[in-house]
Amino acid sequence: MKYLLQVDFPYTGPWGQEMTRTMNELAQSIAKEPGLIWKIWTENESANEAGGIYLFQDKSSALAYLDMHAARLKSFGIPHVNGKIFAVNDDLSRIDNAPV
Q: In Gene Ontology terms, what is one molecular function of this protein (predicted)?
């Protein structure tokens, strides 16, 4: 069974293309995480929030990544990280065109 990880945290920028340039190396690193299938990067400049939606092959990979990523973000000075893990219902998700 696949697992979805939802992460968000306070963030003051950079945004858009500047974020892409600044975070490119981090994105390359995340792409190599064990069990990761994909990540969607999220940003909400008006609310000063950023984060991501991740799909992992299994729950243990999602949990391990969340622990590591929360510690990494805290080392960047981000005091609070919200993280939730959900089991994915593949059959119903496929009906609604999810990339699972």
A: monooxygenase activity
